[in-house]
């Protein structure tokens, strides 16, 4: 089909014009996305860092749930351990930022690999329960280990001079997000992505095609933990102090739900939903409290507990009307942007 | 001819149910061997033991002269044991091309990590794999649906895709679980040409479970008959079709006085594509192991 149309000069031009248009649209969207960072001052730079960190977490959950078909309700443990490890490296050992982030990533990976070994034995609801129990246990044990986490005061994670400004730090977070995105893209485009699709759908079929199901499940957990720990390290330096209460079960739940709302296996959907839920608690309460008219019985304290409700409501809407999430809604647009809509 | 697959005394039990009882069989290189028997005789369970999906309680499986009894499924696959599935081994959410490329997993030639990091060689290999997949797809006449999701295709097409995937693993032994089921009688006979061609051109060895007796008689060099998890008899297809115990097992009656084979005009049996349910012919059971 494609080769046939190529022979007609006019259509060729049209296709080339379509390509130019698509590139222009992508560039315009990127500029639009960059505007807050360019014009928004420190507050927006901080928000963008947070959005990028959430997006990495969303992609981490997407690796596990979207690609491998496993579930984790204990992701706060992986992110938290990564954050504490990075903070420990920075404040106690005075290690450079890169080492701290690497330590966070490795700590998250090791933790997730251990949970993954358990996951080889259980599936579905039981896996959800095991990961849930693991996350809660980590909260009350590892996160309260005073020597490692600094106890109630928290662990400090000062930023090095190079990324001490909020804008520089935002660029760092976006850079790491770009790396994670690249890895995810290559993962699904190569043999590991196909193998994971098989493992997710039917383990028996996968194994008779020569795929090491056990290995791929463990790898998915490890990879997911790696990204989660990396995000944790970034979070530590974003906030510059890490406390156990930053990683309570509720955030893990929000992370899983935001990934589903974004759409499993849709990079763009996951990023958008993650960014939305990263910013919601920061912006919504202030926005509502700043409105000229306040409904009775509602005040700022109430507004602060709204975001989790919004997540749940959005989840219900997604499950009912478009199970593919935001990614499904955006598919016509993304398909046009990536393939030119001729297929 | 060299023995490619040797099964020695397989025993498989599920709780109190003896699924396979002292099953032994041999497949020589270049042969097309049939595995037939009534429903519930244990044919698919046998495949599951050979591929390592079931762990039999006793017995050994040798592939290419080496004991693979304790190897996990994926390592047996890597040695060249490929199979198709009665209820199809395609991944519905992937396209036909992606399914075939999935089956090329073990010969991708790069590590999963290298692929994820996007190392230079992996891009090139991906293009080569896609080209190879396109060749296989074309051979099976699937080029028209190469980019369709497998789940959206009709049964027969998905079945062909399953076969293409088994081939894409680059096997030495192809184990087919009812390749003719769901095909029209003409299509089923057309399959015999394909199977012979696969054997001759790709030097494959084929072990197949099949109910469609004209196909078995047409294409198989040797046939094993399974009944109640035991080997009833074995031999060349012509002999098997005249074997009184086989007739009894398929059509009821006893080995001594086979029931009137209505479907057959001479002494050979023309099995229906779905033989009668087994419990109806409990008297037909006898221990005719060869």
TrEMBL record, chain A:
Membrane topology classification: Multi-pass membrane protein
Protein name, entry field: Amino acid/amide ABC transporter membrane protein 2 (HAAT family)
Subcellular location: Cell membrane
Entry-linked InterPro entries: ABC_transp_permease, LivM-like
Record has Isomerase as a keyword: no
Major subcellular site: membrane
Transmembrane segments: 20-39, 51-70, 101-120, 125-145, 168-188, 209-235, 247-264, 271-289, 301-322
GO cellular component entries: plasma membrane
Organism: Glycomyces artemisiae
Keyword Lyase recorded: no
One annotated GO molecular function: branched-chain amino acid transmembrane transporter activity
Keywords linked to the UniProt accession: Cell membrane, Membrane, Transmembrane, Transmembrane helix
Automatic annotation (TrEMBL), chain B:
Pfam short name (any one): BCA_ABC_TP_C
Domain of life: Bacteria
Gene Ontology MF, one: ATP binding
Listed Gene3D superfamilies: P-loop containing nucleotide triphosphate hydrolases
ABC transporter domain sequence ranges: 5-253
CDD domains, A to Z: ABC_Mj1267_LivG_branched
GO CC aspect terms: plasma membrane
Keywords assigned: ATP-binding, Nucleotide-binding, Transport
Name by which UniProt lists this protein: Amino acid/amide ABC transporter ATP-binding protein 1 (HAAT family)
Species name: Glycomyces artemisiae
Lineage: Bacteria, Bacillati, Actinomycetota, Actinomycetes, Glycomycetales
